[in-house]
Amino acid sequence: MMNGNISRHAKQSTLDPRLHVEYRHLVKLQALSHSFRLLPHWQAKSLMAGRHSSQFRGRGLNFEELKHYQIGDDIRCLDWKVTLRTGQPHVRLYTEEKDRNVVILVDQGANMFFASSHTMKSVVAAEVAALISWRVLREGDRIGMLLKTPKACLWSEPMRGQNHVLQLLKTLSQSNQSLNVNSTDSVSFSESLTKLAQRDLRQSTVIILSDFLSLNVSDINKLKQIQRSNDLLAVRISDPMEQAIPDDAQWVMGDGNYQLSLHQTQQISKVNESFTTTATENAKALNYLMARHNLPLVELSTDGNHLSQLKRAIGA
Fold first, then answer.
1. DSSP code per residue over the chain
2. Of 150, 149, 147, the residue nearest 185 (C-alpha)
3. Nearest-angstrom CA–CA distance, 244 and 167
4. What is the Cβ-side half-sphere exposure of residue 15, based on CA atoms within 13 angstroms?
5. What does each of the 316 residues of the chain score in pLDDT, given as a tens digit?
6. What is the pTM of this model?
7. Spatial separation of the C-alpha atoms in residues 74 and 38, rounded to whole Å
8. Euclidean distance between the first and final Cα of the chain, in Å?
9. What angle (nearest 5°) sits at the alpha carbon of residue 229, between those of residues 226 and 231?
10. In this predicted model, what pLDDT tens digit does every residue of 146-164 receive, in sequence order?
């Protein structure tokens, strides 16, 4: 039994942390959850400012009781139906809901198994999701997750408790480790947004972790639908090669059916110019659509500094 445990441990330790993420590593990220706040007091010029009078949409109110109106009560809480029925003014009392639902959509599709600098986009998304989950647990709120894999969308209801978070991270690590160069997507990112919108979330904080490369106008409308009743934070994970292809090496490019070998600097420069133009236009279009609908956008890179980038972006 002991030899078997040692073998399994050795096998787990062979994972390259830049390519795949281990469950125990996601658990260890709990130690970093104290160094930032997911819902800080946003300043006037900060990322989330401008949509509400408070830093985030209110947590919600629970109805407590009806009582006779007394001088000093808020007249906005008058219950006119009860007042007309009884002939005496009545007000409705509410108590503030003390917990918030936070839902994370984590893209672990085949498109996320890519990096040219340091860390796979899928690993970046998994680590950021884990750090946010631990922070939500620390704040006493509920955490839920929609995990987009190449073959399915796995939904976990928002719940509190460390055991719930551990189960989320275990499923997340398993999905991450299943990604490889042969992975293909049969479920699109657009479908995951549809499933998230169908959950009909209310008064929640929704965080989406993806590269958003396949985002279109229809998807923006889905994001807008989600945002109507929730606070939405989009976290785009990008790679430097999506902006420009290095021209100091030989490249073989393919689309699954055809391949093109680039050996000459002139060929590489021509393809690079076209590729860079397309990538820049797509990035501008996404930024424009997000800004047009007041959707905040956080940028993270695959350079290995994504956790510190996240803290700087949302307020450490």
1. -HHHHHHHHHHHHTS-TTT---HHHHHHGGGGGGGS-SS----TTSTTTTSSSSSS----EEEEEEEE--TTS-GGGB-HHHHHHHSS-EEEEEEE----EEEEEEE-SGGGS--SSSS-HHHHHHHHHHHHHHHHHHTT-EEEEEEE-SS-EEEEEEE-SHHHHHHHHHHHHHHHHT--TT---SS-HHHHHHHHHHT---SEEEEEEE--TT--HHHHHHHHHHHTSSEEEEEEEE-GGGT---SSS-EEEE-SS-EEEE-SHHHHHHHHHHHHHHHHHHHHHHHHHHHHTT--EEEEESSS-HHHHHHHHH--
2. 150
3. 39
4. 24
5. 334 443 444 444 578 999 999 999 999 999 998 877 775 444 334 444 443 334 444 445 666 678 888 887 778 888 999 889 899 999 887 655 556 799 999 999 999 999 988 999 999 999 999 999 999 999 889 999 999 999 999 999 999 999 999 999 999 999 999 999 899 999 999 999 999 999 988 888 999 999 998 888 899 889 988 988 888 889 999 998 877 666 666 677 776 678 777 666 666 677 777 777 777 777 777 788 777 767 678 899 999 999 989 888 876 5
6. 0.76
7. 32
8. 45
9. 75
10. 999 999 999 999 999 999 9
Selection from 311, 270, 305 nearest residue 123 by Cα = 305
